[in-house]
Amino acid sequence: MGKTPPTTDSRGRPPDLQQPPNARSDVITLATIFLAATCAVPSNLTISALGSVGRPTTLIALVALIWWVLHHVQRTTPTPESRRPLRIALAVFLAAAAASYAIAMLHGLPDKESSPADAGLIRLCAWAGICLLIHDGIRTRQDLITVMRRVVLIGTFTASLGLLQFVTGNSWVDSITIPGMTATADFSNIDVRAGYVRAAGMAAH
Length: 205
Hints:
Helix content: 55-70%
Radius of gyration: 21 Å
Distance between the termini: 68 Å
Structural class: mainly alpha
Strand order of the largest sheet: 1-2
Shape: globular
Largest sheet: 2 strands, antiparallel
Number of strands: 4
């Protein structure tokens, strides 16, 4: 009689969590692209046709959400019965946001307020997507270390830019343009209070 293939690996993980190395590396790559877009693209640049949801970070996070949903729709093994506090906390947060959105829509909002509310809900779904993809896609300590190293590298770039802005008093990012993207507002991330320069890197106050 042939042996029945094991339902778990040496770490006790069921088949749906035993991702091949290339799948894990793809998750790490997307997480790195998201981090780079967050810290290396000025926050006022967006695809004008998409409005406020056209920022690169939002679009990348939406891709992550679609990827996560498709993975769970196509998998053939059930989710293991285990506590996942991050998922529970995220579900509670999204439920509260959805309830607030529904109540606001039931009371009726003018167009100037309903459009930002719609965009905010889309951004929440995008953030949930990148969070869930990283939560489920990074399964080993080495993968986590790889991501953390890249977080440190990208954070070092952002900190270096902030130090340069502080020393020179110049934004250095005002003139950055990306084909296909437009600035949603005048961008100046240099603020001076009481003669003290406050730099913000690529972020906007």
